[in-house]
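Model the whole thing, not chain by chain.
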Amino acid sequence: MMAQLILNGLVTGLLLALPALALTLIFGILKFPNFAIGSMLTTGAYAAWIGNSLLGMPLAVAAFFAALAMAAIAMLSDVLVFARLRDRGSITLLVASMGLSLILENICRFAFGNSTRNFAFDVARPIRWHGLRINHEQLITAVTVIICVILIQLLLYGSPLGRAMRAVSDNPSLAAVRGVERQTIARITWCLAGSLCALSGVLAALDRAVDPLLGWNYQIPIFAAAILGGLGSPAGAVAGALVIGLAEELSSLVLPTNYRQIVSFAVILGLLLLRTEGLFGRKAVRK
Amino acid sequence: MSATASALAVRGLRAGYGNGGDIVCNIDLDQSPETILAVIGPNGSGKSTLVKTLAGLLRPRAGTIAVTGRDVTPLSPARRVVAGLAYVPQEANIFGNLTIRENLQLATEFLRGRPGAGPAQKARVMELFPQIAARPKMLAGNLSGGQRQMLAFACALLANPEVLLLDEPSAGLSPKFVGETMDAVTRVRESGVTVLLVEQNVAAALDVADEVMVLVAGRQSLRVPAGQVSTADLADLFFARVT
């Protein structure tokens, strides 16, 4: 029972890891909390559903298609909205992202209606292993997320592009003197965040079903995970996501399951009161 | 002095912020190669604005800036580095969350087309600042104030600049580090680089400079060889007792 809860918690956490990573990347480089993260996830899930159910692609191909489509949508939203507001401060950008969230969600609603949709994907029997019940969806989630997290870490810490991204996050004006253009890095970050959201949308839809509020269900836990890890810290976001996932699952031992969202709120509240820089974040230096 | 003989030539430079008045008013400046020019002046005299305008972080309202005879006025800060004009800002002049090695890599990685910014230059720079090369994996943010300046100098020099702009390198440093930093400035000049040094610490600047330019209220009020300046004269100039 306990082992099963821990397993489920880790997989739930992994599911949160990709959007939390996207949120923290955008926060680190563009300096605002992107409230559209949930609706980007939803839109990604719909894009995959179009590929999978309407165009008949295998789910893996559809997920790849969704990642590309969402990268393009995220880039477009930067061109149309965020680039124009870049220097207006984080509150303006935050409100703009709320607007984008409503727009994306309602485009999905308008195009596909309110009913839930499922991927054309055969449900297989869960695997039994030492008394644990492991779904195929859980395995797919775990493998996909772990690969993505490793790739992002390699990108950030082992490539010139990652160095440039971290340089812009650290000190944009010095990065400009060094020939790293903030605009280019911002666009690449949006593409990356869009792809991560789309992939997590597909994984979330495997777990539940595609509906216009799919991403909204994850919004608060995603924020809790990114804040817990210290906004702006990629490794922290993944660790934070695992902690939130575990905490949500284990809370079912003491709380009715429909109160699970309390856990995320409690974590955010606790952090705001006790440790504002999160577990892995640094104290912000403001001048 | 003809413009081609100058490492740095500035003509009629005016600059300011937003809709405000000019902070830098009509500056003309010629600096001979391989010299140190110290720009000093009271608080608010426009020293930092001058150096920011030279570096390209602030667009001039009028005037031209030329490096070794080439007009760099329309260029972005990064393109100015490629043209040979490197800049070390006063604060936040390193990437604190990146390692020393990453700071050094970033110094030239994205500056395509700067001649002489290769491994040979890196070896020369590391010879100038041996303490920087010793701990490549350390986060730059954990360096002491003096070492940070050394790293910032090293990063700027990796681009093999003709002219190095330094904005108050002694700001916030203990007296011991001020001495070390100024020694480093001298070594940089000896390696063949022209240095424009903006300083609050007048005594330290006068020790290393070849020439001094005094800026008061955005205008050049004096330009003399460093040996000819006495502290008493400076007090008069700073408080604008002479015209």
